[in-house]
Design brief:
This protein has 339 residues and is an alpha/beta fold. The protein is 35% helix and 16% strand. The strands form two sheets. Strands 6-5-4-3-2-1-7-8-9 form a nine-stranded mixed beta sheet.
């Protein structure tokens, strides 16, 4: 696939950054694990907001922008937002539950959308639609992904895995491969309580082959195994529900990611951080006085904190974030869209 709208600007480390923007907090799904389930919040990030933000994003070395929510496809101006970012030289992405994707993907592709991410947690409508409490979501999501691939939009799936669905992952792998999905993230379910698997060895038996498959014939997940790559990571995961983290000694994700909670005008150095509590480390203001700024002293302090302590303290890291950081430490760079 040809990349659209690549920008020449890079951050101080030579890598282009990822900018996440939570453009609304409303959602049409009722997912049991999500804080936005059936939210009717009325906030909407506007095209004017984005126009004001783009100069700061360019100055900060942003090359990738991902709209998140809530459910971004509920935003009436989503295509206009995608086009504005594309026209500014950004590569644009959206993460969605997929319910409305078949009827919007043509317009989004025309606006320059480069990547679409659909959340799919089961290997059939009989399971996924129950987990999401939304009939029709599985079939619509798959149909939208197939059409996205045909239109040249990079199709990706994010899957939340837990004791309820890990046995479906080999079948889901085959379904996504057949559908032409190009990227797949498996991340562990994160709830307010510990997650216990009755038989960790069975998890490994079922899921190790997913990660060890031939990438020329099957879609292999990004990043780390959702239960950890090393014996130490797996012991922490199965015993204490600690999700796999960057290997360390530092987290490189926060060097390359800016997450904006637009409604509350807060910025974070990772897409996982807005959904956790960590004392008084609550990100940084989006504005420096009246001016929108992404690399403020407060944001740099926030980033420095989690760069240093993230590999030791974070619980809730995604498998792609952990894998991204380890790839930077090992290789110094990663391919596009690896986060």
């Amino acid at each position: 696939m040809t990349e659209r709208g690549a920008v020449a600007v890079a951050s101080s480390n030579g890598r282009q950054r990822y900018l996440f923007i939570r453009i609304l907090e409303a959602c049409n799904a009722d997912c049991f694990m999500c804080e936005f389930a059936l939210s009717r919040d009325t906030y909407r990030f506007t095209t004017g907001d984005f126009a004001a933000l783009l100069p700061a994003a360019i100055e900060a070395g942003v090359g990738y922008v991902r709209f998140t929510g809530g459910e971004p496809l509920m935003h009436p101006d989503l295509a206009a937002l995608v086009r504005a970012g594309t026209d500014a030289g950004m590569r644009m992405s959206v993460i969605t539950n997929g319910m409305m994707l078949p009827r919007q993907i043509e317009r989004l592709a025309e606006a320059g959308l480069a990547q679409v991410i659909v959340s799919l947690d089961g290997s059939s409508a009989d399971t996924h639609d129950v987990y999401r409490r939304s009939p029709g979501m599985f079939d619509n999501g798959l149909r939208g992904l197939r059409r996205a691939a045909a239109l040249g939009v990079l199709p990706r799936v994010n899957t939340v895995v837990g004791p309820h669905n890990y046995q479906q992952m080999p079948e889901l792998q085959r379904i996504l491969t057949d559908a032409g999905v190009r990227q797949w993230e498996l991340s562990p379910i994160k709830l307010d309580r510990g997650i216990k698997y009755p038989d960790p060895e069975h998890v490994r038996t079922v899921c190790d082959p997913i990660y060890e498959a031939d990438p020329d014939t099957l879609l292999v997940p990004l990043g780390k195994r959702f239960y950890g790559d090393t014996p130490e990571e797996q012991e922490l995961f199965f015993s204490d529900s600690v999700t796999p983290r960057p290997t360390g000694p530092v987290c490189h994700v926060v060097e390359d990611v800016i997450y904006i909670d637009a409604k509350n005008e807060r910025t974070y150095g990772c897409s996982c951080l807005p959904h956790r509590e960590d004392g008084d480390i609550g990100g940084a203001p989006l504005r420096d006085g009246d001016v929108i700024a992404l690399d403020t002293p407060a944001f740099r302090r926030h980033v420095a904190h989690f760069r240093a302590v993230g590999p030791r303290s974070c619980n809730g890291c995604s498998t792609t974030a952990a894998g991204y950081s380890d790839d930077i430490a090992r290789l110094g760079a990663v391919r596009p869209w690896q986060y």
